[in-house]
Fold this protein.
Amino acid sequence: MKIETALLSVSDKTGIVEFAQALHQRGVRLLSTGGTAKLLAQAGLPVTEVATHTGSPEILDGRVKTLHPKIHGGLLARRDSAEHLKTIAEHGIDRIDLLVVNLYPFRETIIKPDCTFADAVENIDIGGPAMLRAAAKNHGTEAGGVTVVIDPCDYARVLDEIDENDGTSYSLRLELAGKVYAHTASYDGAIAAYLSSLKDSTPEQNAVPERAEYPGVLTLQIQREQTLRYGENPHQTAAFYVDPQRPVGLLAGYAQLQGKELSYNNIADADAAWECVRSFALAACVIIKHANPCGVAVAADAFTAYRQAFKTDPTSAFGGIIAFNRKVDLATAEAVSKQFMEVLLAPAYDDDALALLAAKKNVRVLIVPLGDGQNPYDVKRVGGGWLVQTPDFYDPAFENFKVVTSRKPTENEMNNLLFAWKVAKFVKSNAIVFAGNGLTLGVGAGQMSRIDSARIASIKAANAGLSLQGSAAASDAFFPFRDGLDVIVDAGATCVIQPGGSVRDDEVIAAAEERGIAMVLTGTRHFRH
């Protein structure tokens, strides 16, 4: 069915004039409201105000303008129903074949620090969602229906189909309708979250209301990016969903340059690698196996960082995920290509590095933009519910650390302690990390007992031929007894960093004094389950 009339009313004016011009050139009649109508008229386009079209003026400061039978009848009349078409003709209602609407900027308004309650409420769109839902419901059948557009990115697709057959295909209308309902659901979710987060049940209209960190109603809307071959195991199905409003710097912003399709485990491990590597200011390399760092190093360049990180645990590095926070050059690409790896991540690659990696056809090569973006929440599914928390991006200021032994760490020891402490944050609990000179020397992860994690870290170092003499050790949480500390010191560590907070802190500190090592308390733990 040919598109004869379009109604355009947008908050986001991106590309709207050009789109309206293109529609006009194709013989489409233009209806519009408010600022959009004014903008189109200024561009010399013949546009009819909705108030003129309906014969009813805008009232209540513009709150009521499109809530009218001539609008909703024109949107909701089924194109394949002779009765519907007869009814709207009897009432002098024209079909509206194309609706272009995006909503008042509610989210953009409420994030402003000076947003009052009245400002927030005034930016709740009513007419826009009503029209969108009506048009999306009536996307129709093969015989015809309403085309509804909320995203300027879809303007060109609509024009292409109009050029092809004077109208749009059912498949496009159905896709755009689904996009609309996802958008309105997200919009209503944002409103519900805002209103349910207000601490005052009767907020002052012209004051900035105090809001709780966690709203009473939490709506998380994510989009399916990819259906995966299988889940964590082959008998499980899986899909990868992304946050369309994610900030820059997170893994979901990746582009895959080559290699096989990413698996469920690839994505999970790649995220662990990326979060760890981007936490370092110096050039860094992180090698991940089963969500745990098996080698981490910082150095003057990516090549040296990789060579050092690989030393920690060459056995576990086999089939691992490798991440860099610097551009991968040819020398680095040559080095990593000598080992079997599943995924390689970096913010950039030299052309000759990519040419070399192309020979490794199965290696998934990802480019991920660097950035300091964080997820607003960490979410974990449990039976019948969700656990929601803020991400663990807190690092206490160095000056808040407390040396609790008479022997103070040297400058080199303190640098090693800080490095080990940063890595321990990304190791599954219970976590023990030995480090020295900018690289991990032994990593013990995910044990039920902290003393076992300490023993495993020592064994790993020995297996890799790395000496722990003079090393620094980090524990992600406090030592419940002195036995774990004794294992660490017996292995060769001369200094330890840990949160403290145990009822036996005095006993553990006394053990450190007895063994002649330096101990630093951070006051903050980093459990990772």
